[in-house]
Specification:
Blueprint (H helix, E strand, L loop, with lengths): L2 H20 L3 H13 L1 H11 L2 H32 L3 H16 L9 H9 L3 H50 L4 H39 L4 H11 L8 H14 L2 H35 L9 H15 L3 H32 L1
Length: 351
Amino acid sequence: MKPQYLIAILFATSLYWMYLLYTPFLLVITIAALLAISTANIQNYLESLLKNKFLAAIFSSFLLAVLFFAPLGYFLATLTIKLNSISPEMIQKIELMIREFVATPPEYMQFLKPYLNESVKDVDMNGITKYAISMAGTIGSFSAGFVKNAFLVIIFYFFAQFNGATIVEFIKRVVQMSVDESSTLAKELSSVMSVVFYSIIANAMFQGVLFGVAISFVGYNGLLFGVMYGFASLIPVVGGALMWLPFMLYEFSLGNDSNAIFIALYSIIVISIIADTFIKPIIIKEINQRLLEDDDAKMNELVIFFSIIAGLTTFGFWGMILGPAITAFFLTILKLFEARTKECEDNNKNI
């Protein structure tokens, strides 16, 4: 057997066992690597400022934990505590309020009374109670799993930032690509991921602040529900409605019709239509133009927008990182394939 064949077999065998060994961590490692690529400019700035790669990696990891994971952890922890505090008596009280509202709706909603009576007639509150209790347990276990994954992401993110340059150089030497092609692939993936990461943070914060300020005027915890709305806004189409619709219904049940109408109109017009539909693409475009000076590395903001939606739909929460990364990788490979094809055509013409 030729030595190169033996090395290839050993490599394939070791790759298989490495896959088995790290399968539970593949998603976490991938997310950490993509986040490190997204924030490479922050790491470079901190290295030039602190003159120490280790301290820069620690500081950038701390920033990621505070800006990205801490708000979501706060939201999940608070939600878990609130759901676990739900008692059957509280659900029965809510049922009584809903039935009273359906029996005597406001004057301007009288035309809905037959439909409301029909929809409430077959409601099984015992089943809803059991479902709410089981849902509280599910969210609690999800919160614990998220905290564990977030901790692992930060750990791997630190190592990616600290050893990223060495890893990239090693991959460039191993992969059968030219220096120009590997540099192009790394540059375009880094550029797109930077735009995606900062766009996600900016839009979530923007919409969260808008909702938090409005809801605080009605008497609720603006910080908590602003954070909740920011992350809920990442869910395509129905994300915002998952937040403002329960508030509207609850205010109606209390008889605060003006508050309910304000929450609904403000959320639909100001946040969903103006902020999400018109301002969100502008924010992505602005970040795209400011971060990327090279026009060849830029990706259309609508492509980025829909890749985020596709990623969330397909992969869930982490899809907002994976979707744009997969799209950017595919488009860059197409560019490299186009360049290779053109090079082959030029060579054939010269012959």
